[in-house]
Amino acid sequence: KDNLLGYKGACMKYPFSSKVFHVDVKYPIASYFSLPVGVSIISASFIADTAATGFSSNILNGKKIVSGTPPNEQEHIIIQPVGYDSKDAQILVFTSAGTLNIMLHVVKKKQEEPMYCVEWVLPPPKPVIKKRSRTITVDSNYKINGNWDDWESCYWLPEVWNDGRQTYIKYNEIMKAREHPVLFELYKTNIFHLTKKILIKNSYDSKSLTHIIDGVPKEMMLVMGKQELVIKRLKFQIIEVGQNENRLKK
Fold first, then answer.
1. Which pTM value belongs to this model?
2. Which of 186, 6, 194, 18 is nearest to 102 (CA)?
3. Residue 87 and residue 167 in one domain
4. Residue 135: which residues within 8 A CB-CB, separation 6 or more?
5. For 123, which DSSP code?
6. 41-74 per-position pLDDT tens digit
């Protein structure tokens, strides 16, 4: 399809970008540029005022060149050096899709060819991937006991649950500025069935005040000085939590 200047064949296509775009131009040839469909020119100006006198262009006098019909209208730019003395120049074209930064290089040798026709194209839209909803199974059936009388009112009494893979121990907001208890796992020995405790390796999310433990220990203990809270997992109890619900939030 011929363009408005009558150049036959397809224009050279380049992605629309704010990076400097280098264009070879040559007197007395007019170079023809097409913007992406639907993109409109707001204004244009040369970096140096004196450069404007070396080129003729429809965008410098506010004249719009449009082809096609809505919604497939396409705006065009025609730039032409006005004489052999025209020098390299830089022009900024402000559009509804961003700024085009065009560096015009004036070529003068007989064997040098200008860029006759250029078309900028927008990248294709990213596909919208619809996420499938799913249900997370949570077990929060735990029993907590303390070794002192008023343990039920202690400020570090946590909320406990697991998702079958990891166990979560979440404190309330008052623990942000407090010392945290030490976390142990309790287990019974094979001989004499004595109760032993070992330090549990865990990660701690300071934003949500939550210990995150790999695995699902049956019995744990939080120790703060001489005070102890024993956390025991009871019979499995299912609670369904929607995908968008995050129990680690504040």
1. 0.47
2. 18
3. no
4. 240, 241, 242, 243
5. P
6. 888 888 876 566 788 888 777 788 898 888 888 9
